[in-house]
Amino acid sequence: MSTAYIVEAVRTAGGKRKGALAGWHPADMAGEVLNALVDRSGIDPAAIEDVVLGCVTQAGEQGFAFARNAVLASKLPDSVPAVTVDRQCGSSQQCLQFAAQAVMSGTQDMVVAAGAESMTRVPMFSNITFHAAEGVGIGPFSPRILQRYGVSGFSQFEGAEMLARKYGLDRETLDSFALQSHQRAAAATAAGAFAQEIVPLAVGGGMHSRDEGIRADATLESIAAVKLLSEDGVISAANASQICDGASAVLVVSEAALKAHGLTPMARIVAMGVTAGDPVIMLEEPINATRKVLARAGMTLDDIDLFEVNEAFASVPLAWLKALGADPARLNVNGGAIALGHPLGATGTKLMTTLVHALRARGQRFGLQAVCEGGGIANVTIVEAL
């Protein structure tokens, strides 16, 4: 089986809801990261055989073959095909795995995995509206599904609370983790750790090149002052991921493409997998997925230098740490979605971009990325920096 290599990995700086990137059409934003891959790698854009792009809320400006529209908004020729993928929060991580699978199978030699989401211009859940008053549809969860699981609906907020209760995580622990996320992100930004991975976007006569959600002045007291989402719970907006606008992209190629185009790889895909479990607690599945992918790779957590576990809610990476006995010093070393934002469909390749750059900057070798997803699914990918 062929090896899949990452040649370039880029992302925009995150924009807050109604913030710096609110004026950017999501297709144009996605087009910019595609352009950056071409510019930085020096490849002939016509050599790209497919663009696999993640997006969760495929409606409005992100509807109607969104990935194809991203290609049309870029400098890629119209001969480059594209497809849009929704695996919820792990959409673009699944795109990366699809791209790697295409290369490893020998089907294709050069594929872009990408993601984009404007959570300002296309708000969450705007793709699941229905017209019950007219008797047309009852929403995405049929009575059969709800009866099977004995619920009136599925909620990631409730799943985050369930996870905290199961793993004995109190609010102070979650808030402390949230503070650490901001502190690490602020330190990484000040040190220039994100400089090489960020594609600046023109905004109001200037360039947007700094993640907008980082609160360098955050304190445990300010985080604790934020109202809980439920009276008897531990989850608040301050210890959960931020709504975010952004785009990201990774260029995946075969060894043959490396030689043919004179490319230098940044990393190689070591192992990958996707698993599914309980759709009610839903956010616990990265634990199971991590165990399975490590076993497939013949590795243990001790072999991994850095972990990126998406901070959808603080309870997710904290439960992951506790269940697996992982080293917290290696987790989300440059901060995570609590500080940097979680642009849904763009998050998978965004995290991989940060992970690969962080490994190379630190002279470290192996990285593991895990993302929880709606419906109780999780993707895990292991890479080796080169």
Task: Describe the protein in words.
Helix content is 34%, strand content 19%. The chain is of the alpha+beta class and 386 residues long. The strands form two sheets. Strands 1, 2, 3, 4, 5, 8, 9, 10, 11 and 12 form a ten-stranded mixed β-sheet that branches. The protein has a two-stranded antiparallel sheet with strand order 6-7. It is globular. The two termini are 19 Å apart. The model has no long low-confidence stretch (mean pLDDT 96).
SSE diagram, text form:
Blueprint (H helix, E strand, L loop, with lengths): L4 E7 L3 E2 L9 H16 L8 E5 L11 H7 L9 E4 L5 H14 L5 E9 L24 H7 L6 H11 L4 H20 L10 E3 L2 E3 L11 H5 L19 E10 L1 H7 L5 E10 L8 H13 L8 E4 L5 H10 L12 H4 L6 H16 L3 E8 L3 E9 L1
Parallel strand pairs: 3-4, 3-5, 10-11
Antiparallel strand pairs: 1-8, 1-9, 2-8, 5-8, 6-7, 9-12, 11-12
Helix pairs in contact: 1-2, 3-12
